[in-house]
Amino acid sequence: MNIQQKSMGEKMKKMNWITGIMLSAMVFLAGLAFAGNISINGSTTVLPIAQKVAEAYMKEHPDVAISISGGGSGNGIKALVDRTTDIANSSRTIKPEEAEQAKAKGANPVEFIVAFDCIVPIVHAENPLTNITLDQLKAIYKGEIKNWKEIGGADKPLVIISRDTSSGTYEVWEEKVMKKERVFPGSLLQASNGAIVQVVSKNPNAIGYIGVGYAEKTVKLLSVGGIVGSKETTLNKTFPISRPLYMYTPVQPTGDIKNFLEYVISDKGQKLVEEEGFIPLK
After folding, report:
1. Where are the alpha helices (DSSP H) in the chain?
2. Which of 28, 52, 70, 75 has the fewest CB atoms inside 10 Å of its own CB, making it the most exposed?
3. Would 75 be classed as within a structural domain?
4. Is residue 17 part of a domain?
């Protein structure tokens, strides 16, 4: 072997060694990039809480990336069952059949209550009505009351706005207001709390319902049976349409997911919950 051949061989060995180190580093860095990713899916009611807390958490933990999408509680829990999300936001409890489906796929859902909420009926800002009863709400959403004059309003037809059936808010409404009876087919279904606010704010004859965290000045909130939906009436359970809000994980959380959930229910996280208009745990 001449000197030139020897030199070329040494160069090749050196290049292979450098390439090996670079590949190892790329694999290591790729692992780091994905290790801090958290995906959250589900309830549009819980969505603003998740967004607000995630933003604060990522500022404190820049190595963690959190992606959030809505779509409703049912969709979030389905993603949990299918193991395509780390955390499912839900404005209702997981159903027994959903828990069984999750277990069949190797999951064992863990529940975290992250806030409280009350569902308030809303009308157009110019509607003179200020109070409504549970019986009146049920009759309206069954399609039995069709005109505002039947409950002390103007002689105008009622336009009934409801959430779609994949919504946890709809399911709580169905349980606490409808007493398991279905909302009548003539109601106009909306995919989110925000969409209901928009529709009701533009239609003087409309009535809808939203989580209190979505309340805006563009609509009027009605008291129910003379009780105003508020932090106090939700926590003391006097407001009749109140509920906890949840985050679910497919298994007992560890690492970044565990740390994030602990942050949500910490004093700092609960302050952010209240800033979003929802009711903190304490």
Report:
1. 3-35, 47-60, 73-81, 96-104, 134-142, 168-176, 193-202, 231-235, 255-264, 267-275
2. 28
3. yes
4. no
Please check whether residue 54 lies inside any domain of the structure.
Answer: yes
Domain with residue 165: its CATH number is 3.40.190.10
Question: 């607000």: which residue's tokens?
Answer: 52
Helix axes 255-264, 267-275, angle to 10 degrees: 60
Regarding whether 205 and 191 lie in a shared domain, the answer is yes
236, pLDDT greater than 60: yes
Q: Does residue 225 have a pLDDT over 80?
A: yes
| Angle, in degrees to the nearest 10, between helices 73-81 and 168-176 | 120
Q: Return the half-sphere exposure (C-beta side, CA atoms, 13 A cut-off) of residue 46.
A: 36
73-108: pLDDT as tens digits: 999 999 999 999 999 999 999 999 999 999 999 999
> How far is residue 111's CA from residue 73's CA, in Å, rounded to a whole number?
13
Count, in order, helices (H) and strands (E) of the chain.
10, 11
Q: Are 120 and 222 in contact (CB under 8 A)?
A: yes
Identify whether 2 is part of a domain: no
Q: Do residues 88 and 124 both lie within one domain?
A: no
Residues 13-29: pLDDT tens digits?
A: 444 443 343 333 333 33
C-alpha distances (whole Å) from 230 to each of 123, 212, 279 are: 17, 8, 8
Who contacts 165 (Cβ-Cβ below 8 Å, separation ≥6)? 74, 171, 189
State if pTM tops 0.85: no
Q: Each residue of 189-221: pLDDT tens digit?
A: 999 999 999 999 999 999 999 999 899 999 999
Q: Are residues 200 and 153 in the same domain?
A: yes
Same structural domain, 93 and 150: no
Domain that holds residue 256: 34-116+245-275
| Structural domains of the chain, count | 2
